[in-house]
Request: fold
Amino acid sequence: MLEITDLVHSYGSHRVLDGVSIRAAEGELVCVVGPSGCGKSTLLRSVAGLIRPTGGRVLIGGQPVDRIPDNLAVVFQDYSRSLYPWMTAANNVALPLRRRGLDRRRRREAATAALDQVGLADAADKYPWEMSGGMQQRVSIARALAYRPSLLLMDEPFGSVDAQTREDLEDLVLRVCAHHGMTTLLITHDIDESVYVGDRVVVLTRSPARVAADLPVGLGDSRDQIATRQLDAFVRLRAEVGRLVRGGSSTSTVLEKH
Amino acid sequence: MNVIRAVGRLWLVPVTLVVWEVATRAAEQPFFPPPSATLARMGEMWLSGPPAHLLLTEQAMDDFGPSLARLFAGWALAAVLGVAAGIAIGCSPRLSGYLDPLIHLGRAVPPPLLVPFFLALLKLSTPAQLTTIVFGIIWPILLNTIDGTRTVDRQHLETARIFGFSTAQRLTRVIVPAAMPKIFAGLRLALSLALILLIIAEILAGSGGLGYRLLTAQRTYLYTDMWGCLVVLGLLGYLLNSAFLLMERRVLAWHRNARQTT
Amino acid sequence: MEHARVLRGVAGVAGFLAAAEVVGATGLIDDRFLPRMSTILRGAAELLVDQEFLADARASLAAWGLGLLLTVAVSVPAGLALGALPPVERAVRPLIEFLRPIPSVAIIPLAILIFSDNLHLRVAVIVYAASWPIVINTIYALRDVDPLAKETLRSFGFGPMSVLLRVALPSAAPFIATGIRVAAGTAVILVVSAELLAGGAEGIGIYITEAASGNRMDLMLGAALWAGLFGVLSNTALVAVERRLFRWHDVRTGAAR
Ligand SMILES: Nc1ncnc2c1ncn2[C@@H]1O[C@H](COP(=O)(O)OP(=O)(O)O)[C@@H](O)[C@H]1O
Ligand SMILES: [Mg+2]
Reply:
């Protein structure tokens, strides 16, 4: 579904991505984790077609990305800027649906349904500034869901909300992505989160970014904030990813001996 | 309660008026009539008409009518031109590169200096007055619109690109609302400037209106009339500004609230 | 980048001049009223050696400079006093709120009665009208001073006066400077307005009135052009001074710009 091959990007002479290759199968949720400033957002922006990478190739559903694909949605990090503050939640969700050729009433229905899915049925007529950060990020997710993309990109979507909200949102994403069978690329710098949410975890090195490891998670489909995080497999994988993010070499050979 | 608070806030106003009244009566200087005389004269000039006309006299119609019409026409014209051009320039760094020096020069030319020129070119006083107002007040609108358009949040623009907004949608749903707070700031500044330029244009290229009345009062030694004009101009400026703020508060409710919460 | 921007600016100005010249050459507009661009530019150049114009420009400049100086001398202390003494500010506020919206040029006819000397007249009008932005900016700036910084100094036993001088004044200075820049622009408008309305012997407004009565549109527009260039230069100079003096100041938006 998503094929990123040898992606290279430099801002001027400053190389940020140095040959990154990532693949995601249909319906898969891939987490990309890496230290702050390593080039994760640059990677996402290349996939979204917001910037033209210096080299390499991105295919979505077999089509090369040369402008912004119409079957893709993005949830940005900063909740305070991801919605338009001059529109209600429902209008924020409904506006992109014009591109889907829906009339006003059907747009409104789709928006209400999407808001309902993220547990905000009552907030349709609220403005972003009348909502908490977590609620605003839910609206962002609802906007992406209503748009029915085949690929969902998220750039540190829970980076600026409190811990409790973050856990709720992680579970929400797991639920809706599975429900819609959406292929999802979720970018994070949080090691725990990447292991908890992902079907696979791709670890990037410090800048310039390369793929340090591509690890299957294998924790099964149903996850629970407390039980899953206590599993041995979870703890081990988290330690492994942690080592890699801090620049250590892979210890998977050691793990395999156990 | 409210009365007490108002007295606590406004006590200096009656005190000033009383001191002014006493001082002017004592000085008996013709240029400085006592405020009571000014007030009485204002009532006589403008508010002694028939009740059917809300007490407005014919002279009130002659003084305020043309002035307000010019003021709002000039302001509206400058708003349309300034906002449209500002959005175009703000959206295109290239265009703004070409026009920047011209805009800065245009803004710096003192508009009163051009009144004689506009008058010679356009022959008629009303077009010359309107041109003076538009030329004088378009700059804050233009510059604020450019600034507002240029500083739209990058994430807001990228969201529009990701979700494939059409050009019209991007303009009307994203760029213009985002720039609106700055545009309004420019429009408000322009409104108070418009009043200044209206007066200067009516004095220099005059044929009726408050500025003209002010000038004739001064030239014909009607100093109470002149003071009446000053007072009413102050009131007008205050009312215009307050009315605009009221409107701004409604239109930009999201902006005020969004700023408070983040 | 900078280079390209300058080139574009030059191209823009050249394009504008050329377009105006072409429109003039088509004869669509009577060139007695709107002279050709080349005629205007020649007129502007001639003004540089025209003794009469130079004397007028000097007179206006003197009134402007003197007025601005006096404005700063009056309004900065007034703003500081009002900003430092909130009860006084609260009492005076309604008066300010009524006086400020009076369109500044409307007081010129009154000033004509009071001042027989043209320089005094212009200076007085400038001081009245250009003080507002400085006073208001100073009040707001003092109100915005970081209370923590003030408290810190107070806790070391400094009195209110030295807190004002050491913390409040420096952190308010950039806003006061912005107010002065706005006032400088207002003062230009008032000088020429006073000259146009009150007449007198010398001043750029007088020069323009005479050029208009002699139907010399080229000289009129040339003089206006020089006035505009002067405005650009003085504004640029003030911005440069602000940048130099307040490099430490992160670019916040002022109360009035
Ligand atoms: N538009 C840009 N121009 C120049 N440098 C940039 C730009 N965007 C990001 N960078 C630089 O590229 C590097 C990677 O940035 P980014 O992709 O945002 O990292 P991350 O999302 O992993 O924190 C950083 O060093 C950043 O300073
Ligand atoms: Mg990032």
Remarks:
- Chains C and A do not touch (no CB pair under 8 Å).
- The pocket of magnesium ion (ligand 2) is lined by residues A 40-41, 155-156 (CB under 6 Å).
- The first helix of chain C runs from residue 2 to 25.
